[in-house]
Design a protein that fits this description.
The structure holds three protein chains of three kinds. Chain B is mainly alpha-helical. Chain B has nine helices and two strands; from the N terminus they run αααββαααααα. In chain B, strands 1-2 form a two-stranded antiparallel sheet. In chain B, 49% of the residues are buried. The model of chain B is unreliable at 1-8 (pLDDT under 50). Chain C has helices spanning 2-6, 51-59, 104-114, 119-132, 148-160, 178-195, 206-209, 231-244, 308-315, 330-333, 345-349, 368-378, 383-396, 412-424, 442-457, 469-475, and strands spanning 11-20, 28-35, 40-45, 68-76, 88-91, 166-170, 198-202, 215-219, 225-229, 267-277, 283-288, 291-293, 297-301, 323-328, 352-355, 430-434, 461-465, 478-481. In chain C, the strands form four sheets. A six-stranded mixed sheet of chain C has the order 5-6-7-3-8-9, with helices on both faces. A five-stranded parallel sheet of chain C has the order 15-16-17-13-18, sandwiched between helices. In chain C, strands 10, 11, 12 and 14 form a four-stranded antiparallel sheet that branches. The chains are: A mainly alpha, B mainly alpha, C alpha/beta. Chains in contact: A-B, A-C, B-C. Chains B and C meet through helix 6, helix 7 and helix 8 of B and strand 5, helix 3, helix 4, helix 5 and helix 11 of C.
Chain lengths: 209, 261, 491
Amino acid sequence: MTAAPFITTSSSTGRKRPSFRWRVVDIVVASVIGVASGLVFVAWNIAHEPLSNLVAFLPGLSALFGGGWLFAGVLTALVVRKPGAAIYGEFLAATVSALVGNQWGALTLVSGLVQGLGAELVFAAFLYTNWRLSGTVLAGMGAGLAMAITDLTLWYPGAGILFITVYSISAIVSGAVIAGLLSWLAMRGLARTGALSRFAAGRDVAAPR
Amino acid sequence: MSVTLERRTSAISGVNPVAKLATALLVAGVLVLSIDWVSATVALGLELVLFAFAGISARTFWLRTLPVWVMAPLAGVTIALYGEASGRTHLEWLFVHVTDGSLTLAIATVLRILAIGLPAVVLFITIDPTDLADGLAQVAKLPSRFVLGGLAGLRLVGLLIEDWRSIELARRARGVADRGRLRRLPGQAFALLVIAIRRGSKLATAMEARGFGGDTERSWARESHFGGRDVALILVGAGIAAAAVTVAVATGDWNVIWARS
Amino acid sequence: MTDAAATGARVSARGWGWRHAGRPDWAVRDLDLLIEPGERVLLLGASGSGKSTLMHGLAGVLGGEEEGEASGELEIDGSAPANQRGTAGLVLQDPDSQVILARVGDDIAFGCENLGVPREETWRRVGEALETVGLDLALEHPTSALSGGQKQRLALAGVLAMQPRLLLLDEPTANLDPEGVREVVEATRRVLDRTGATLLVVEHRVAVWRGLVDRVVVLGAEGGVLADGSPEQVLTGEGEALAASGIWVPAHPPRRPQRRNIEAGPPLLSTEALAVARTRGDAVQSGVELFVAAGQALVLTGPNGVGKSTVALTLAGLLPPAEGTVHAHRTLAGRAGAHPIRWRSRELLTRIGTVFQDPEHQLLTGRVREELAVGLRALKLGASEIEERVDELLARLRLAHLADANPFTLSGGEKRRLSVATMLATRPPLLVLDEPTFGQDSRTWEELVAMFAGLLDDGSAIVMATHDEELIEALATRTHALTPQREAVLS
């Protein structure tokens, strides 16, 4: 075998076209984010009941807290920036939630898949180039809309029109704020800690040092 | 928690996890099509009989299925209050509108959630993540890089829980733990995420150093078997679903969700 | 092919360098190095000299263009490392982060599977590897129940099963207790004797590998090789310079502080029939009788997993006693009552400071300066006093140049100094330290020990859980050896 020569290109600091192929570190870190998010889901499964009772006076407003289950896909995509990351992260988190055991059973997996897809489609619509706040919030809204669709189909098929409307709008708002804005802030914070040094996301937010 | 990787022995623990997953999804996928109390009751009744043969202790059963028992009535109340109105009105106040129709839907909702949720929990109790990954990659033929990456991530759960405990103790030592727990939660979750990603990056290096993610076709040191027992479980699931649909259609209660209103 | 498998690989670097993407400086540059098959090389160098980068490069895990740029050539047996997976086997520092799968057998088989080794051959190699590293465990044994030393030997076995001809060990014993260190070194010796593989090991503590290596290479902080030769040659010639850069060289140990004042002050804390548990109902130690007095250092010793940290955290008022009591005397408690666990979080600040084993667990903010002010703010001190104390600490712990850096981005030694400083800020008379010198270089060690000695001289008390012999010799007033009290979970 001939030695693969490495060529020094010292001035190539310009933006390289990002590769869509998943590296091992992309897969593993996406997995870790998915799993850690799944643990947050488990906590949220329990915590959201009393919270949603607070707003039980208006039908469907409980979906405002649904964003607690939507951030996994958005955050994973923001960190690794690969096609499918939103679906993978959200699905894995849902799997952890289901394996630990929750009230929604096997359909947690379906919800995870569809909600991940909701965010994924938005990122894909921007051809995986918009990782700014705007794209992130839209992706969060996509996940929120997906949640409204799955929940209303799977769990509240008997609901009236008022409930459906309020629930959908609440879900989208929740997705925008919790899954969108919060994920974006979390990603910026993570980048500043240097934990994302192997990712383009981490290099874009230069650590102040 | 099954994620703590304990090996258990029970009637269904030896069944391929892919079969359990398929069964749970099959039952759920059919029951979800209709909102009526008949199909849900038939399925639930058959399931409860079968749980007795699953070889799971009563204590484990109640402990693990508790969330389902709590969630189902709550969802039922929501539908009773805000569900589609029809028939006699019992209560009307602001947006609340309790009617014969909403009450019927509420009962159906409760039964339906139980019938979908319980079998999934029971089937998942005995799933070992390693076996699940073997099955998903070898039987279901999902991409092995992602399945194994996910499995390796799952193994970090135990470590992350320990990290979480240390983070909590450290907040007390730093003098900031007098504030409410809920208000500290985001900060602690962030710290956990940083530590998790650090661990993940190191784990990725370790995995890559062992040849993971290369172009060589992977071999499997352990074969994931998919045999008669696995097919039998899926058939049992299909049987439950078929019985539920048949009885509901026969009684005229089958009520497909998209055909409503 | 049996011949090739039985001999080591040849490593060559010609003007090799690597710069991580997004960084202005090269991690390694202008490296020229030739290692012959079967050589056993200890790689030294100050932190930042790129030792780990070289190891990652040889293991082929630096990543592609996306992650950085290379210059020159780096080859194993005349070809790029990334083209020959399995030739080099890498073992890393952190035992927890390199266990890949949940069962011992699966974990060792993982590498073979990735290389496409047939099933029967894989399991044969797994058995052989287990035996070589001296792990007498069932294939189904859960990897989460292993000690640090066992986990490192497991990683070694996983690498060994791939039949590598180059063994790369990147500080494999830095996080282990003395027993674990011995196990790993012995296992490595057996692996090398059986396989004839070439060895390249990075380690801060020279004494650990001294008996195993036949060559020492020192990398320079500015790139290139500083020294290269037999251990005697290099350690005699460069020993002092190496020690100054933080490497533990046996002939040049770090200075130990002179204690000015070893008089015991009033009692601060004592325990009665204390039992401790990390999780409720799972006591690891019971019947613990201890007392702590001002100006004294009480050291908790004992093997891994014996409950040293748990005892320390219970004394610190962070974990509730499972049984018995932790009694705080009036001198320490003031008006807060006799039971530290019932104190408010804020009351702990001026009474007991705790430094955790992993500094990252106790970081709270995005800037070093903020981090030091957290406790002072909780005490509601005035802005000028806070600034004064923070500036003083920054200077005292050589952190001033990092005042605006994100704490998570600091090096291991810097993080450790920061975590100690955050606790000193509120001036508690009792400090509880959990493995304060773990994995530290000799320079940080010297600084920490000097500071602890100063605190003791000034009348503070210290409780520490450690198995650092040098630390114990330098500071301990008394040691309390803990022994395992329940069936070891490990075997």
